[in-house]
Amino acid sequence: MEALFASEFVTQKKNLWNQFTDRLLDKIEDTQMWTNAAMVLGRIVLIIIVSRLALMLLGRFIDHVTSERETSRLKLRTRRVQTLGKLLKNTAVYTVNFIVILLVLGEFNIQLAPLLAGAGVIGLAIGFGAQSLVKDVITGFFIILEDQFAVGDVIQTGNFKGTVELIGLRATRIKNWTGEIHIIPNGSIVEVTNFSVNNAIAVVDVNIAYEEQVSQAMDIVRSVLPKLEDSNIVGVPELLGIQTMNAAGIALRITVECRPNSQAAVTRKINEEIKRVFEENGIAAPYQRMMTIQRGDLVDRTGGA
């Protein structure tokens, strides 16, 4: 009995295998199927080739539009243009690749409407759950678009001041002069002070003692200012006159136009030159004084016995 059941099982197994092989051979020998598969594969290859050509043309067009041209009527800052060019290229790549994926799925007869509807619902849920991220991205886009600052600029936002190292769509990275790196979400950047856009004004106060002749000191300062040589100095330094008179002495104020964010270096240079010419001409700097009054002198001054 068991041998009969085993024989029937083997026979059924062989029949199923024969049916599978017959169907497989029918499929393999079906020229229409191979023709349709070849057409689908050919359309997919064509879609990919066209997408690559479209990306290449878009990249060249973006490079042409954002390239620095001397005859261009629209004067844009080079760093801003480069940043916008990279942003546009990345956006084009994501958009074209997304369209390619949809077209390829369509070739396999996959219904795109449910997928797009599901993606829309998921995107809406992510948007509600990541409002701060969306705010950072939108703010970063407008920072780049409006050219508020660029990589290499010295800016201050809130309590952070330093050189911009990176501008992303989500965050901005700032390095201060002591080496610390500050990563600030773009959504929290409300007010920005850019020190690298226009030339700066360096203000230098030089103190002299009360015993010195002010006119002589001013003449010496005026004679040395036009001779200052520094690559950061744009205009000729100007002596405005006496700024203050107090216990620290008489302060002479000097102003000079210099390159952006170079006030400290120019100030040190002017102080060095003024100190040298004052020493050569015997102009003394102010110093602390102490007056001692004896008790007897105090009584004589008040008219006492």
TrEMBL record:
It is found in: Cell membrane. The keyword Disulfide bond does not apply. Keywords: Cell membrane, Membrane, Transmembrane, Transmembrane helix. Residues 203-284 form the Mechanosensitive ion channel MscS C-terminal domain. Residues 133-196 form the Mechanosensitive ion channel MscS domain. It is a multi-pass membrane protein. The keyword Transmembrane applies. Residues 94-131 form the Mechanosensitive ion channel transmembrane helices 2/3 domain. InterPro entries: LSM_dom_sf, MS_channel_1st, MS_channel_C, MscS_beta-dom_sf, MscS_channel_2nd, MscS_channel_C_sf, MscS_channel_TM-2, YbiO_bact. The chain crosses the membrane at residues 40-62, 83-106, 112-134. Belongs to the MscS (TC 1.A.23) family. This is Mechanosensitive ion channel family protein.
